[in-house]
Amino acid sequence: MSLKHVSPLAGLLSAALLLTGCFSEADKNPGKTADQRLRLAMLQPPRSGLTPLSDDAFKLSRWSTTETLVTLDKLGEAQPALATKWQQTGDNSWRFELRHGVRFHDGSLLDAATVVNALTVAAHAAPKPRILDGVQLTAVADGEQAVRVTTAQPDPLLPQRLSSPQLAILSQKAYRPGGVVDPRHAGSGPFELVQVNGTSNARLERFGGYWGENAKASGIDVSFVPDGTARGAALRTGAADIVEAIPVSQAPLLDQKLIHEVPMPRTNTLYLNTRLGVMRDPALRAAVRDAINRQQLVDNVYEKRADVAQGLLGPALPWAAPLRQPVSPPVAARKPAGETITLATFSDRAELPEVAVYLAQQLTAAGFSVKQVVREYSQIESDALAGKFDAFILSRATVLDSGDPVAYMYSDFACKGSFNIAQICRPDIDQALQKASVIPAGAQRRQAIMQAENLILATDAAIPMLHERVIQGESADIRDAVRDPRERTLINAATQRVVQAD
Questions:
Q1: Nearest CA-CA partner of 206 in 188, 220, 185
Q2: Do 106 and 210 fall into the same domain?
Q3: Which CATH number covers residue 106?
Q4: Cα–Cα dist 218/173, whole Å
């Protein structure tokens, strides 16, 4: 496997390639499949050689090949995983006791030194994993089966933070010179990653030495299929058992019994560049805000399989709406006089280019001149982060990392946030986020989060448009695929394909 970036063009698979080249002939005929492997079609190819220090970590997590010290339940509460229990030992320190008898795929055993190594590499990585934005973390061994984790500032959500797939614990052999992390044969989950072919496909095998219950499926064959039509065709023809993120446009063409809508903490947001270009003017940002017809986007692009956004946090967080206060006073809009806006988005999510078309029409009607830019995400992210666009449409997960929105808000809206596409830097927002970050989980923290959201919305730096529901495809033979709103798990040890022999 090459651990360097492979050209994104290699990941663009046509429907024909998906149906003929990604899965074996035996797998195309479930009635004759002997080993009951799972065939998975995923939305995006690896962006960073499947290093867990990047967003590729969520692929490793969704395949159940890597694991973290803790995991989250449906309420976002921390639960045991590679750590069996923990306690706060000081304002800035926690002690985690490790699970005994955990073996990595390369045969090595989980111990304190392995955990310290993994967390230390993550803490010193450049760029730092998103979950560690604004966090200075140190890990030291406390005997052979316990670790003490210290942060520079009090962090009441440290256990939840350590549940992020970007902080997965891999065997020490995974970490190579030069910051390279090779996840093959290095995880501790029920499936072992054994092969990765660039941005085309990957192969996993059942790991017989798993500390929990062995996987029911003998392995996973993964294909990376950015083309939404091809993913829909894979489910329709039976070439794939589980299909990630079926586009809304494809859903009506499929057997409705095979598709499942999962409410997501994911918001389709328009980020406006507050530092460069015409969107520096708050009155013009307000004009953009007023021009957007959210209901039209929900009805026409998402075919009513989404919810109109009232704020950054949607119905997947049911506590948010009752705590939300009107933005006061809202900035008054100035009538545009033909100012040109460069509106950009990416093609990996099939709905976003269509959203861009509707937005361009709405903004043109409001008096702007709109230029559209659409590329694959891997080819547009760096330009978006560098502030090269006036407006950027992003489908953004709001609690992806810790089960808590503060990390997302800091990443996107703090002065030093690593994903600050809006180029925003406001001391009052930074202070509100800092205030929320030090409050323990509970009602007071939720109130502080909504106060920070109110300040962000008042800038019109980010205009939430709608909250998405992901459409997951599962063949009739699949049992116990995971429908996870946080997009952390898709296949676990219980997932299997139940087939009938001829």
A1: 220
A2: no
A3: 3.90.76.10
A4: 25
Distance from the Cα of residue 441 to its chain's centroid: 22
- Shared-domain flag, residues 273 and 412: yes
Question: 146 by DSSP, 3-state: which?
Answer: strand
pTM: 0.73
Q: Are residues 130 and 205 in the same domain?
A: no
- Please report where in the chains the tokens 């918001």 appear, as a residue: 267
| Element spanning 42, H or E | strand 38-42
Q: What local confidence, expressed as pLDDT, does residue 139 receive? A: 98
491 phi and psi, to 5 degrees? -125, 130
Residues 6+ away with beta carbon under 8 Å from 361? none
Q: What is the pLDDT of residues 394-405, one digit of tens each?
A: 999 898 677 889
Tokens (6 digits) for 439 = 């409050």
What is the residue range of 16's domain? 1-63+189-241+475-502
Mean pLDDT by 10-residue block, N- to C-terminus, for the chain (502 residues)? 35 39 45 71 92 93 98 85 96 97 98 98 91 90 98 90 95 92 97 96 98 97 95 96 92 95 92 97 97 97 92 90 91 95 94 96 98 96 96 90 86 94 97 90 89 97 95 96 92 92 60
Degrees (nearest 5) of the Cα angle 476, 481, 484?
135
In 235-382, which ranges are E strands?
A: 242-243, 259-272, 306-308, 340-346, 369-375
Residue type, 352: L
**β 242-243/38-42 pair status:** parallel
Calpha distance 91→164 (Å, rounded): 22
Cα distance between residue 471 and residue 251, in whole Å:
8
Tokens standing for 71? 């995991």
Residue from 101, 164, 96, 177 nearest 133 by CA:
164
Q: What is the 3-state secondary structure (H, E, C) of 471-496?
A: EEEECCCEECCCCCCCCCCCCCCCCE
